[in-house]
Structures are given as C-alpha cells and as structure tokens.
Amino acid sequence: MYYYSTRDKNREHRLTASEAILKGLAPDGGLYVPSQFPQLDCSLSLDLPYGQFASKVLAPFFKDDELEDSLGDICTKAFDFPVVLNSLKDKTVLELFHGPTCAFKDFGARFLAFSMEELLRKNGKKLCILVATSGDTGGAVASAFYRRDNLSVKVLFPKGRVAQRQKKQLTCWGENVESFEVDGSFDDCQKMVKSAFVDKRYMDGLSSANSINLGRLLPQMVYYVYASMLYQKEKGKKPVIIIPSGNVGNCTGAYWAMTMGAPIERVVLAVNANRTIPDYLSCGKYEPRSSVRTLANAMDVGAPSNMERLFSLYPDFDSVRAHLSAWSVSDDEIRQTIREEYEEDGYVMCPHTACGEFVRRTQFADFDNIMLVSTAHPAKFDTVVEPLIGTEVPLPPALTDLLDKPNSWKDISTDYNELFL
Ligand SMILES: *Cc1c(COP(=O)(O)O)cnc(C)c1O
User: Fold this and answer.
1) What is the pLDDT of residues 26-64, one digit of tens each?
2) Residue nearest (by alpha carbon) to ligand 1 atom 2
3) What are the φ and ψ backbone dihedral angles of 284, each rounded to 5 degrees?
4) Which residues line ligand 1 at a C-beta cut-off of 6 Å?
5) Is residue 408 in a domain?
C-alpha cells in the first residue's frame, strides 16, 4: 500500500500513510489517495469493540507503515465514544455526534492527533498545528490535540463571527492549546495561516489538521463500514446513505467504504444553498465559487476541497454521475424541516442534518432503506434550533463539561506575526 497525489497522474511520488499524514497537502497542491482499495476482510466481526473494529478495517492501509504496530492502540484511544444507529419510524439516523465536541469531526481529528503524537514520539520532533476556524473544525482539533505530547495548537477565529457556544469551545483549553480572536474575517484568518506556512522563520515547526489530511479521511471510512454492516445485519438490506456535505470529506469516507465492498446501496449528498455540486451534476461543468452564508454554516463551502479525491475515484463525468447525486437545500427548507421533524417525531436535528432530512422527504420518501447521517448534536446550534421547536435542547454531558471551563484568548490584529509573540 502506498499513497500518491491526485495530481501525480503517473504515480511517480509514492508515500507511506505516515508520510502523507505528516505532509497534509501534497507539494503539487493535490490530495493524497490510496494506491488501491483492499476488499473488506470477511471475518470482520461487529462484536468487536469499535476501536478494535476500526483497527482491523484500517490495517491494510497501514501495512508496513511506521504506525502499523501502534494502530490498535491509536484506534482504541481515539474512538472512546459510541457510533449510534438510531431507528426512527421512517429512517435510521447514523448519529456521529457522540464524541467530545459533539460533531463527526471528532473521529478524524482524534485519529490524526494520536497518530501524529506517536510519529513525533518516534522521530523526536515537535509540531505546532495552526487552524483557522469558523466553527466546528477548531473545536474538534483543539479538543483532540489538547495535552498530546510534542504538539501544540494555535486556533484562529474571526471576531464576532462565531456563535457564543462555539467560542466557548474554542477558548476553554489552555496548556498546549492557545486561542486567538482575530480582528477580521474568516478569510483573514485563513490568509494568516497561509502566510505563516510560507514564512521561513516559522514554517519548519508548523503543520495543519484540516479536512484534506489523509489522517482525517481514513477514520471517516470506518464508521460507514461499521454502520452499513450493522444495518444489513439488523434489517437484511443495504442502506442508501444521505450525507449532509460541505467539503465532501465525510462522504468521501463513504465512497471509499463502498469501494472496499461495504454493503452500501448508494450515497446521496445533501448540500445547503452552496450549489456547486448539484449544478455540476446537472450541466457537466465543474465551477467552484465563493461560499454563501447559511444556517448550516459548517457546510458553507463553494469550492469543496475533497472533490479532487472523488474525481480520482470516478475519472469521467459518466461515472461521476452514476455514483453521485446531490440536492441543494435552502435556509427556509432547513427551518421547515427542523420544525416538522420535531412536531411529527419529537426528534431534534441540527441545521446540517436537517438538509439531509429535507432531501429524504422530497426525493426518497418511499424508500424503506434510508440511513440519514447526523453530523452534529442540535444543542450546538441552540440559537437556530430552539426558537423553531419552542423548547430548550438539553445539553449532552460532553458539552456541559466544556461550557463550564474557564475561557481565555488573545485579541490580535490580522498580522500573523502576533501569533508567535
Ligand atoms: C464539517 C461539517 C459538515 C460538512 O462535512 P464535509 O466533510 O466538509 O462535507 C457537516 N456538518 C457538520 C456539523 C460539520 O461540522
């Protein structure tokens, strides 16, 4: 097993999984993908604890890698929370929000953090992770890297642009995690990170943990293997999986799982008002654009970075169209869905999950094999959700703990040198 960049058509530069994880983005600007997808081991058992299950699914991807022997330990430490399949009357909800920051990004961020910690322990180096965030990513990364040896984190977020609860989650850490409130926009934060990465004074000790890192993608494949196998065992059929998507990293995990032979009938994408993918599927021209702001803000992406990985899996438009379908959901439709779902079923959804549910209601209402992916706990988006359902959403214990911690952050300008003072 080796990894190559999506832009390296002749596969000239081959990396191990560990090398790809430490590099993040390939030097040619492409994304690392596996050279092959081994078929799932038929003896794979759902009776295993999830961490061990994950380690078995991932083993072929780390064959002869520096992390091969520590993989079991990394998975056990990273995945210490449940993957929940919740059977409702008209669908099964795959709840990926039972981790420490109550969003699916905990899976990828934690696997990446424990993998990097192990690699640094072996090579005796230290790394500082820079992360610009407008919400969920920063919280998941900060939580995952908190107290990891030889790693530190600097989180940048735009002043006045993140929700109150999100800000608490970004600023409650301390020790090896520092938070910076930047007097600027999210784009300014991203520019500061990019400038630091190319500045010779700082670049050597810096790394990123964003969603294009292979170390975040691989664990996102595992829960689709697990959930589809469990679904098939319990219901005797393969699920159609609807995934609320932005940068399409989460759904890439599902496509990789399907390619390995996981029992998945089809993958469907639900996007918000950022229509890049549905427009591409209807006209055949792929046109990334700037993002528009919506209620499902973690999916506000106009140029989905992981599309390159999907294009490398399905190289021509016909095969893309055979595998990909996507629908766009407006803010009004999100609100309507959150309200209806609560009134009809008493089930509370976050705005991202509601995009998926709207697609189910409008496109797949007659299907009896829908698995809807829930990407975040609704209590994270209380200011959107609570007025719609007219009641409070109880906080899960993980969030209560975080929100009770003391907060601290530094106010800085858009000069990235202030990050290193
Ligand atoms: C990041 C995120 C998404 C989008 O996931 P992608 O991998 O970028 O497609 C959806 N919902 C929530 C809650 C998220 O945090």
Assistant:
1) 888 899 999 999 999 989 999 999 999 999 999 999 999
2) 298
3) 85, -5
4) 103, 105, 136, 211, 244-250, 298-299, 352, 375-376
5) no
**pLDDT tens digits, residue range 100-152?**
999 999 999 999 999 999 999 999 999 999 999 877 789 999 999 999 999 99
Closest by CA position to 396, among listed 373, 374, 378, 375: 378
Q: Which atom belonging to ligand 1 lies closest to the Cα atom of 248?
A: 9
Q: What's the CATH number where 356 sits?
A: 3.40.50.1100
Q: Which H or E element spans position 372?
A: strand 370-374
Query: Does any domain span residue 181?
Result: no
Give the total number of structural domains in the chain: 1
Angle between helices 71-78 and 105-123 (to 10 degrees): 140
Ligand 1 pocket check: which of 105, 217, 220, 269 to mutate, most ligand atoms within 8 Å of Cβ?
105
How far apart, in Å, are the Cα atoms of 96 and each of 80, 84, 229?
13, 7, 16
In terms of Cβ atoms closer than 10 Å to its own Cβ (0-12, 13-18, 19+), residue 272 is buried
353 CA closest ligand 1 atom index: 11
